[in-house]
């Protein structure tokens, strides 16, 4: 019986050990499963928190850092003074925030005759305070050079003595149907006051004046970089978003804009189609010599534009956009 009892005792002990092992394995499996679910839940929680925190930080940055309003102002003001005969509509700005980024979309208009037509559609993306993406879709039929050189400007300074064939553009204008209105880029034989040009061209609307800033004779800054024209709209603009709304004079507003965007010149250069704005030296020239124009953009009926051909002040003409008759003057 002793051997039998020993056998039973050993069997009982083996069974208890096996049971303890199973319990241990089950306990380990439960712990592993619990840890896995805790890790999954922690990861999901962290992931879900990152998105709202990112949005919160984005809103804080664009409210108190480089504000969204500042970015909008730099973009819009730059286009007003670097893109001839263009305007923006405030109510059509489309702003969207994503983590650490702001997207800004808007349409740019040109005045042809008496109506405004969409010229370009801009889609800008800012990552924090820097422009990270720029897309421009144009609706224009006649587009000037995206990157002007020393010899291909649409607006030419009197001291730029490059030979320019002016006959072709006048023939283009003559060939247009009588029932059309057009936009024309007119370069002058002298640098004059804007008011003087307005008196010489009473039958058309002068919509934008290119301002002499001391670099247009060669289209080069003092550092040797190619520059593009800058100027301002001549007509009154009561559009809510316009920087020329409710101002003492468009000339003063133009100077104020330059002094504003020079503080954000890198961004302004990225927004504009110009490679280089050279604002500091141009502002210095204007403050010393005053605001005078060497070229203007005008719009009006074909026949009234042709009537400008005999003006001795005009050096060259280049036709821009053309539309069907919408003139009621």
TrEMBL record:
User: Sigma factor regulator N-terminal domain spans which residues?
Assistant: 26-116
Sigma factor regulator C-terminal domain boundaries: 173-321
Show the stretches that span the lipid bilayer.
39-64
- What keywords appear on the UniProt entry? Membrane, Transmembrane, Transmembrane helix
Which organism was this protein described from?
Answer: Psychrobacillus faecigallinarum
Has UniProt tagged this entry with the keyword Nucleotide-binding? no
Please give the name of this protein. Answer: Anti sigma factor C-terminal domain-containing protein
Q: Does the keyword Zinc apply?
A: no
Tell me which Pfam families the record gives: Sigma_reg_C (PF13791), Sigma_reg_N (PF13800)
């Amino acid at each position: 019986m002793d051997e039998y009892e020993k056998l039973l005792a050993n069997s009982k002990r083996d069974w208890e050990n096996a049971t303890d092992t199973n319990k241990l394995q089950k306990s380990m499996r439960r712990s592993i499963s619990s840890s896995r679910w805790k890790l999954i839940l922690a990861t999901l929680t962290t992931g879900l928190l990152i998105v709202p925190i990112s949005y919160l930080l984005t809103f804080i940055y664009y409210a108190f850092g480089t504000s969204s309003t500042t970015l909008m102002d730099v973009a819009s003001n730059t286009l007003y003074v670097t893109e001839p005969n263009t305007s923006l509509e405030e109510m059509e700005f489309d702003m969207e925030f994503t983590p650490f980024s702001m997207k800004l979309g808007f349409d740019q208009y040109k005045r042809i005759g008496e109506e405004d037509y969409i010229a370009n559609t801009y889609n800008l993306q800012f990552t924090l305070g820097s422009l990270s993406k720029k897309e421009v879709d144009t609706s224009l039929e006649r587009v000037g050079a995206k990157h002007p050189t020393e010899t291909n400007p649409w607006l030419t300074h009197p001291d730029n003595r490059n030979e320019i064939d002016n006959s072709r553009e006048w023939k283009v204008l003559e060939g247009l149907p009588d029932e059309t209105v057009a936009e024309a880029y007119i370069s002058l034989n002298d640098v004059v006051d804007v008011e003087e040009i307005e008196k010489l061209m009473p039958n058309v609307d002068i919509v934008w004046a290119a301002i002499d800033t001391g670099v247009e004779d060669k289209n080069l800054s003092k550092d040797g970089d190619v520059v593009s024209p800058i100027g301002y709209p001549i007509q009154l603009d009561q559009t809510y978003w316009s920087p020329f709304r409710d101002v003492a004079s468009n000339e003063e507003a133009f100077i104020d804009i330059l002094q504003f965007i020079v503080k954000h010149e890198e961004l302004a250069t990225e927004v504009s189609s110009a490679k280089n704005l050279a604002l500091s030296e141009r502002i210095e020239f204007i403050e010393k010599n005053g605001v005078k124009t060497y070229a203007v953009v005008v719009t009006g009926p074909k026949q009234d534009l042709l009537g400008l051909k005999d003006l001795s002040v005009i050096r060259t003409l280049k036709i821009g956009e053309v539309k069907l008759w919408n003139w009621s003057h």
